[in-house]
Amino acid sequence: MTKKLVGLTIVLGALGALSLFTYALTQNKIVIGYNQGYMPDQPIPFSHELHSGQYGMDCAFCHSSAEVSRHASIPSLNVCMSCHLVVATQSEHIQKLTQAYYAGQSIAWEKVHLLPDHVKFDHSAHIQAGTSCNTCHGPVESMPVVYQWSSLSMGWCVNCHRQPEHNAPLNCTTCHY
Amino acid sequence: MIKRTPLVLGKKTYQDVTNDICGLVEKVPGPKYFASLISVKALFVFYLVVMGVIVAKGMGLMGVNSPIGWGTDIITFVFWIGIGHAGTLISAVLFLFRQKWRTSIARTAEAMTVFAVMTAGLFPILHTGRPWLAFWLLPYPNQRGPLWVNFRSPLVWDVFAVSTYATVSLVFWYIGMIPDLATIRDRAKNKWRKRIYGALSLGWRGTGRNWNHYEMVYMLLAALSTPLVLSVHSIVSFDFAVSIIPGWHTTIFPPYFVAGAIFSGFAMVVTLMVIVRALVPEFKNYVTIGHMEAMNKIIMATGLMVGYAYGSEKFIAWYSGAPYEQYVFMNRAIGPYAWSYWLMVVCNVVIPQLFWLKSVRTSIPLMFVISIFVNIGMWFERYVIVVTSLHRDFLPSSWGMFYMTFWDFGALIGSFGMFLFLFLLYIRTLPAISISEVKPVLNVGHEGGDKHG
Amino acid sequence: MDTTTQAPSQDVDQENPTSSGSPKYWLSLEQWRQDPEFKKLAEKEFLSSPLQSEEGQGGWARREFLKLMGASLALTSFGCVRRPAQKIVPYVRAPEEIVPGIANYYASSWSDGSSGYGIVVTTREGRPIKIEGNPQHPINEGGMSARATAHILSLYDPDRLTGPRRHLFNEERTNFESVSVDWSAMDKEVAEQLKAGGVAVLSGSLLSASTQAVVDDFCQAFSARHFCWEPLSLESLRLGAQDSYGRASLPDYRLDRARLIVSVGADLLGSDPQSVRWSRQWAKGRAPGPDMSKLVVFESLMTLTGMNADERYRIRSSQYLDIVMGLLHQLIVVQERSRFAGNAQVVRALQDYSGVARQMGLDMDKWAALANELWENRGRSLVVASAYEGPQARSLQVAVNFLNSVLDNDGRTVDYRGASDRAQRSSASDLKELIEGLNSGQIKTVIIHRSNPVYALPSSSGMTEALRKAELVIYTGDRVEETGRLAHFLAPDHHVLENWGDGEFMAGVYSIQQPTIRPLYNTRAFEESLMAWSKEAGQGPQRLRQAESWYDYLRNYWRSQIYSPNLAQLGGQSFEDFWLQLLQTGLFDASGATQMGRDLTPRAFNLSALQGLRRNSSSEEVKGFELVLHPTVGLGDGSLANVSWLQEFPDPVTKICWDNSVSVSIKDAQEQKLRQGQVVKLTIDGQSLEAPVHIQPGQADGVLGLAVGYGRRHVGKVADNVGVNAYALLGYSEGRCNYMPSSVELEKLAKKIDLAIPQGHHSMEGRQIVVEATLAQYQERPDANIYRHKIFSLWDKHKYPRHKWGMVVDLNTCTGCSACIIACQSENNVPVVGKRFVMQGRIMQWIRLDRYYVGEPEEATAVFMPMLCQHCDNAPCETVCPVLATVQSDEGTNDMIYNRCVGTRYCANNCPYKVRRFNWFNYVKDNFPAPLNQALNPEVAVRSRGVMEKCTFCIHRIKGAQQQARTEQRSLKDGDVKTACQQACPTKAITFGDLNDESSQVAQLFNQPRSYAVLEEFNVKPAVHYQTKIRNTDQLKGDSSKKEGHHS
Fold first, then answer.
1. Nearest C-alpha of chain C: how many angstroms from B332?
2. How many domains does chain A have?
């Protein structure tokens, strides 16, 4: 009798585990194969924690085109230099920045949040709808080095769009066209 | 008491039956076998190369274009799936009908089904534009919200139907073979042969319990695969019937395709049996002229059914009064592809009627030629359905022509390479006739043989 | 793994001039610094295409295949796989006007020498990607021609010259060795040679006043002479006006004020340089109603104007003059009408044209009715005739001027002060004197700009030999071209989108042309070259040598010649404000005349001109055929032949692409036993040419047609040796070409060339596709000839809570010019496939402009239908797609999701309209090599191999407009969203909008009685309705009115 019982439990256990895994996968509880947690090191160790956390600088000050355009855009060097002309000029990172600025050479940052080419994400639409930057980018103001906080998987976005209170469009061409 | 034709000739004893059938597996194959195996293997490798290049460079190599989106791939897919159906019919449906004559051809016919489905299964993947993403047709759980498949699309039904058909006929074929594998295991001298066939026969010891379970499982599987004979090709016909293209969306399609499938399936069985009987003379005693004759009768019958379907399509087109339908059937008969239409009608309806004559029904060379014609006719039936309906439909400005390229022929001929390669491997490695089923019918048709049949 | 070529955001840095070695224009910093790491990334990013082009490395890259299969397997395998790292490089000093992701629009103007339009250039991240019409410009009011829209591709053409070159010749100029040279070295040498005198400047018509000023200054500097010549010249219009009214001014037509238009061989709606303008005006008069205009056409070849005519008569091209004089005779002599009725001089001139119509076999009472109708509509009718050079061209224009004067049209529908004085300046005498000057050695140096005489002249003109005698030839084209082969120096001019300039396309309307990108290569503006040479030589007027650059010269010219004279009209506005406002609107209208209803006093016709029109009574029976050399809507004079979009553009009349052909009438083809595509040899006095035959319904018998603009050489991979050069068959005498040579021998050859015709079949087979009705039928019942099917549905409809996008195409004003096809191709990154694949039925354009012939083949006319995705509500493609790659959106559009598509193609099979296109190969990567891929629109995903694509109703424009409305906190209003085809359509036949909004224009048109859906009986409920074509005639030619083809 026990052999049959053991066999039964093994089969049921496997089935249960599989269905649990399927549920978690489809409900985005667990995520496989996305860049969550990707934290590349940057040519200049810019700290969001310092700038936006400690000094309380608003996101839009640097990422200025987020309200009007699809791209949030990385600030051009003249934005950094507007302060670092005088602030902390002795730090070797700032010297690297200043030297690049005057030589007319830009800084090649590592792109952290990378959506596939067939996805067209529109920052301005989300900001218009009242979504805050933290919703998708996480607690950036407490990040010394920026990392991808959320999975940015399709399921993750679709789940958010499905919440009735967001009344966000659910057509496929919202992101794919 | 009507006199039954003997099913096994040559006054065979049980020992003879086992020796004849297992002998084929145990003897080292002669040079003739190896020659045919090598040539078929070359064709199979050519097929893989052709398909590899098409996947690498793009579907554009084949002849399909804008109005005619489907071409050789889908035609050959439906052709091979159709051929498979005779095997299931012989081994499952005739088993339920207690047709004794099925015993000697059931195993090979079922093998043909399995190989035909394998050959056909490649085409739906390789005809897509991006075959490396064809797995999206399966409803697997994913992280895209989840994003399932479109359950209303006949192509998704195809995936379910064909995969079910493949698994069920594989299991049915394998379970039926277990007693014979055990026989080979017991007779095996060489250590490796004993170990392999031993594993394959799942520890069969031929006890009463074994036979009891075997009979019950075989009956169950036969019952399970019987609806498949009708459902799989109906679903394959839904690929066309569900659309709105004139010449496709007629309700006759499901029965018409099933009849056509059985028709071409039996023709392929006849072709293969003639070849096997020629290659292996002892099999002539088991697969007798009576068997071939019975199959030819079925070919003739299903040929008439297919002929009826052609006629009914025309009648419905005329009767419905829809200008597009009428144009398509007029265009099929006298348009630029009329040659393929008349070739189809001659091969499918006219030539099989020769089987009314007993002399034709029982002459091996004639039946071989007719069965080849039937399969040519059936390939062209799908050609006519796919190409002529697509190349001239609603808006005349979008009309176009379809021409087969080298790659189309490569895929078509190559697929035969795959099928025959698998078949030739099977003939020498697995028992081609079911020993356990032939023995009970050994005395059928001989005087006084019925008493304990 | 399919990599799209969307440019990474704001990597363009305008600040850093680059060293001469690396490319001037670069995508990202790494490319500028030629980082090794970037090169590795670049190779990976641009995978060598698996499709080996035919002549390229044959065979298939096995390694490529394994890499492809291996990579995709790896990517889909389990485990967290890191996507390839990407860099993001910000500006150093960000220019304010460029916000990454937002397009900037610049008003500019486009001209190809013979005509010009006001355009708006869309630029993204500093590079132009689309040319659209300027809605405020009076010439095209937003409409565009196919050629103007496709001009963007010639900017990024990889075959363009990247810098000045010098050709080293031996004495006989037979060998050819080209070496690059830098500007300063060239300037020194040229200046030396210029000082030696004997200088000539040859150019096409210069519509730009300031360029003309530079050329005049330059000629004054070196006592040079400015010769003006270009192919397809309409000089006969000026000479005709000179003879008729004493002043050689171009006539400007007002089709919108004409109730009756008679065209004798003039293809106003098709290949005419200003076809956009004439179509626009013609469409205004076509609204079905009591005063709907009527178009009567007499022509030899089948043209767009002929197909849109209400009445069409087939005559030979040599009979054009007989027709006009016949009408005059009928009016003045037979019906004794007009003030010239009794005039002896007139009667004597007309008498030998009596009974001309009967000789030509025209129906006499129709002829009298036409003359009668012309008289009834005097002052509101218009007669135009073919103006291409030919034996009777000048007298034909005089006859037309006389007929227009007789009918009091002069000054009403013929506005003799409206046309620009700079257009059509090409003159035959200039050409003759130039050739003589070169031969006599009097002209030692010739500078050639926007003119390609070696290609566009027959060898009998002696141009090639003359050019070989010149000591110095400078050619300023953007590629070597036929004339450039004989040039010593190539001083490549900037592209129109890289250069300043201006244009006067209508009298008094000055358009500015402003650059939208820094010049891609080391080219220099033609005007700047002239200034540099005069500076180098130290000769020339002050303003020529003092201005630092061509831009300064242009501003000074505008300040002095255009701004100050009109100061009063500008109300004292400062020049800077005037200049900024000019750059913003793109034009300055100093014409003052309200364009709508300007009446001018009719001019006095000089009767003595009629003497020259005596009919050569001995109209001997001409042996052999008449040949008509004509431009096409796609290629025009052939200067844009290397643009792949225009080569693959199905000719609106013949639907042939990638080739020109000899069009033959059906009767001639039967007599000569010719088959479609059979090669024939045409010979005219020694010159012969071989070309395939195209049997053309509706073409006059005894006349052959051959399109010019093909058979180019040294222009680039796309156009070299495509078709045959028809200019070689031109007649030539004393500088004057003959575009209608007669006595042409036609010889049948055994060869056959397959012509690429994407349209499968040319008749409607009695099906209700394009519905035609006569004006009477329409007035009796607005939905005349439309058969409404009874359809019902078991299922309830899709819900469209917000918008329901729909479109209405008015077939009555669609002339079939196909400008929408190129606009859609430019907007949506639609690839080009090449002749071989077009023949296999794999053309990719999202709009298929179906042309169906109606009526008996000889007398056939045609109807047009732009067929695009109908965005059905019950879309048959959606139910059959297995992977949900095409789905119904809740805004009425049928969305095609490229990245989800697996490529089973069932949707294309199930579409009754067959409007879906499949990417059989990686077309964009193979046929759009860098830098052509700069012309791709970053808003629209570029499709990889194995993916279906179709019209998306410009979904990216809908998204953009919705986002714009949200940013401005307002709801979307009608007209916010304009699809690319609607925007480019010259006659505004396409209306797009939200069907849920009752007040929108499309909602009103959608349910008008005249609107119907194609294939309505299949209950697919298309979101595109078509409106019936109304013919202003009493009897339809088509069979669509016959009922038997229809079921009950």
1. 16
2. 1
